[in-house]
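Chain A, query sequence.
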Amino acid sequence: MILLLGGTSDGTDLAVQLEQAGFSVVVSVATDYGYRLTKEKVSHVIEGRMDEQAMCQYILANQVTLLIDGTHPFATIASKTAMAACQKAAIPYIRFERPSSTLDNTLPVDSIDEACQIAKKIPGTIYLTTGSKTLGEFASLLPMDRLVARVLPTISVITSVENLGFKAHQIQGMRGPFSKDLNKELIKKEQASVMITKESGPAGGLKEKIEACQELNIPCIVIKREKIEYPLIFQKTSDVVAYCGGL
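Chain A, predicted structure.
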């Protein structure tokens, strides 16, 4: 059996193709939201975060012969955990990751702290499209009254954002994908003077965010991915399916 760590549209699409190719696949997702979206397309889905020990136990108990890490490019803890579990369980690990986008016409940075240092110096509203998990860091490093965050419109996410101190008018609860024009309208609505986002790649709509900022003539600060040395990495679903067929 193949264990695929999912949570992204790319990972779900890969799971569908693997099932269609005749492989036995179970997709592991961290949240109820991810579970519901994945279950619409994939037969076998499990929910819940696993540490190294739990993941290793699951691999051994369910006779997993291959782990495919299809988590978000910024879910680095999950990737490192999976690599360690695979090494302990003595099974192959492969990374399936959406390709990076060009960062032309952006202000690329290596960390949230660096992004905040730049944004602080730009007067006006700071528009965050970085997801909800790291909003607490932004709230601690930037003036709260200058922030607007775009997040998934689920009860758990909205509640967590409100608990950080964000008011209703500072929260845009929406699910992508977002076109360039929609990005522009959302930015204009908030009269934002700078956007902070992540190097999420084409599937994460980075190109459309950058283009929207360009046309509105506002800076787009992009937090780059952490560089991790994966033992084996693929960026095309067809290559992963071919690799699985050769095992």
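The longest strand covers residues 192-198. The chain has two domains: 2-99+229-245, 107-223.
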